[in-house]
UniProtKB/TrEMBL annotation:
SMART domains: CHAD. It comes from the Bacteria. Transmembrane segments: none annotated. It comes from Ferrimonas balearica (strain DSM 9799 / CCM 4581 / KCTC 23876 / PAT). InterPro entries: CHAD_dom, CHAD_dom_sf. This is CHAD domain containing protein. Residues 1-254 form the CHAD domain.
């Protein structure tokens, strides 16, 4: 039977190796898919290490999760700009965002170079033989699944009572972790509803990120500033529309659960 220590270490190592393969292709003038996949595979590896942290308490999992989290965060702003910049109409605002994207990529590459030793440490830790207390992966996965289910239900109820952008972000992370759990260790064939929610939450997060990006650009009297102010207002309206769709999805999710139907 597959143990937690071996199963999670091997899966995390596979995801991390894949992330590093994509890192070599990250280029501001190339396809944004390389940076996107780099972040996705870092998050998958880190999610596994975080989700199974109780069972991996005597292993390097906590240190690895920290290292991978720092590497992923260095790419966040560049990814936000990769999504935002192509969506803008040609003009002063798009030119300004394009210059910001160029600067952000330069910063990312500088930080990635500084993180080389961290990457070497992570690779070494993933090649070690981790201490094993005999816990079997399958039942531990079920325990993790039930814990995530409880946290998601609690977060949904919280949002129905009083929503805020940080609370939506927390739900997005929980949904994403559950999808990663099922695709890497569980039942990927039963994820339709969670995938729908993750898409809605991802779109909402993009709108929030774009409004944040525009805030410093709207100061001043130039054409780019005027366009930024106008576009920020349009994004705010889009946020409300997206929030209504998310409210409907949450209610659907909770109704399925109250009827004792599987929600994954």
């Amino acid at each position: 039977m597959e143990t937690v220590a071996t199963g999670i270490r091997e899966r995390a190592a596979t995801q991390y190796d894949t992330a590093l393969q994509h890192l070599t292709g990250v280029d501001v003038d190339g396809s944004p898919e390389a940076l996107h996949q780099y972040r996705v595979h870092l998050r998958k590896a880190r999610s596994l290490l975080t989700l199974y942290r109780d069972a991996l308490a005597d292993t390097p999992a906590a240190l690895l999760a920290q290292l991978l989290g720092e590497q992923a965060r260095a790419a966040n702003l560049a990814r936000d700009l990769d999504v935002f910049w192509p969506s803008l109409d040609p003009g002063a605002l798009k030119d300004e965002v394009g210059r910001l994207r160029q600067r952000t990529y330069r910063i990312f590459h500088a930080e990635a170079e500084q993180q080389q030793r961290d990457r070497e440490l992570a690779l070494w830790l993933l090649k070690l033989s981790w201490p094993c207390d005999g816990r079997v992966l399958a039942p531990e996965t079920e325990r993790v699944r039930q814990h995530l289910k409880s946290r998601i239900e609690h977060q949904c109820q919280r949002l129905l009572n009083r929503s805020s952008t940080p609370q939506w972000h927390r739900l997005r992370i929980l949904i994403k972790r559950w999808r990663y759990l099922e695709t890497l260790c569980g039942e990927p064939s039963q994820l339709a509803l969670l995938k729908e929610g993750q898409t809605l939450l991802g779109d909402f997060n993009d709108l929030c990120s774009q409004r944040i990006l525009l805030k410093p650009l709207q100061a001043g009297k130039g054409k780019a500033a005027r366009q930024a102010r106008q576009y920020r207002a349009e994004l705010k309206a889009a946020q409300m529309t997206q929030k209504n769709a998310l409210d409907d999805w949450i209610q659907h999710l909770l109704m399925k659960n109250s009827a004792d139907a599987p929600i994954r």
